[in-house]
Amino acid sequence: MLPKYLQSRRLDTALNTNTTNNRIKIFSGTGNFALSQEIARYMGLNLGNIHIKRFADGEIYVQLQESVRGCDVYLVQPTCPPANENLMELLIMIDACRRASAKNITAVIPYFGYARADRKTQGRESIAAKLVANLITEAGADRVLACDIHSGQSMGYFDIPVDHVHCQPVILDYLASKKISSGDLVVVSPDVGGVARARAFAKKLSDAPLAIVDKRRQGHNVAEVMNLIGDVKGKVAVMVDDMIDTAGTIAKGAELLHEIGAREVYACSTHAVFSPPAIERLSSGLFQEVIITNTLPVSEKNYFPQLTVLSVANLLGETIWRVHDDCSVSSIFQ
């Protein structure tokens, strides 16, 4: 069964329209091939044939093995770890499509790496998010489709249209199936910077109350929790963030919630980067459940009993159809 927000599109629309099928092509990089297959399956299409390999010295070779002349091409490739490898692969894929006379090239980036380097917080720092945006644009992309970019201003770094896909509906749909009493719920932002995200999440989760963890960061990937704003005693706390990297922020936040008296703590995040020692922190018993999506591939060694992985393939597939048909994308999330 498709969730409510995806019922406007049925698979037979693609299957019965041969002209459309000939005009749209989906290719996958090596970053998250399983997600690309799911997207194509939802859309009723087959992934395009593409040959990607590494030379002995590490250089990347890309060759399209079917014609894309005059087609709308969608390249699915997250810039996840190894970030530089996957980013370069995406750029070369875009270049190959441009030189093969594709009509429009859309870079579908489920996880946009370097998005955290979106501003200067100290002197003599780079703004890598802007640099990566320039690289993608100069490579020849006509449009970018990205999921839950770390900060909204990063969309402004692109000089081409950006469709921002919010993965909250997928997580909200799953949490609704848990049938947790609305009076017991409280949504928690693990830091002040994520308050807007958590507030929007809480509004759609039965307008649940909001709590905020006040955190002081001492360095990159190092966090220290100071105190909590809000009431979580005896409640089910749902911590919401856009990504989990080393899990330092969310784990220390969960410790604080348990100390104050939260009954259960759930962690919800779109992007599971899971840099060490994230798995040890997340599987230590602090969380009743860790809910993530498959914007990044999760290796078998990173699975643990409390982990739940939700697919965003249908959401991305629906978004691609709407972009291709010149329909509204934002209406999916209303």
UniProtKB/TrEMBL annotation:
Q: Which reaction does it catalyse?
A: D-ribose 5-phosphate + ATP = 5-phospho-alpha-D-ribose 1-diphosphate + AMP + H(+)
State whether keyword Disulfide bond applies.
no
Where are the bilayer-spanning segments?
none
The record's InterPro entries line, in alphabetical order, gives: PRib_PP_synth_CS, Pribosyltran_N, PRTase-like, PRTase_dom, Rib-P_diPkinase, Rib-P_diPkinase_bac
Keywords tagged on the record? ATP-binding, Kinase, Magnesium, Metal-binding, Nucleotide biosynthesis, Nucleotide-binding, Transferase
**Group of enzyme by EC:** transferase
Q: Name the Gene Ontology molecular function terms of this record.
A: ATP binding; kinase activity; magnesium ion binding; ribose phosphate diphosphokinase activity
Q: Tell me yes or no: is Kinase among this UniProt entry's keywords.
A: yes
EC annotation from Swiss-Prot or TrEMBL: 2.7.6.1
A single GO cellular-component term on record? ribose phosphate diphosphokinase complex
Set out the biological process GO terms recorded for this chain's protein: 5-phosphoribose 1-diphosphate biosynthetic process; purine nucleotide biosynthetic process; ribonucleoside monophosphate biosynthetic process
| Gene3D superfamilies named among the record's database cross-references | 3.40.50.2020
The record's comment on protein family reads: Belongs to the ribose-phosphate pyrophosphokinase family.
Supply the name of the protein.
ribose-phosphate diphosphokinase
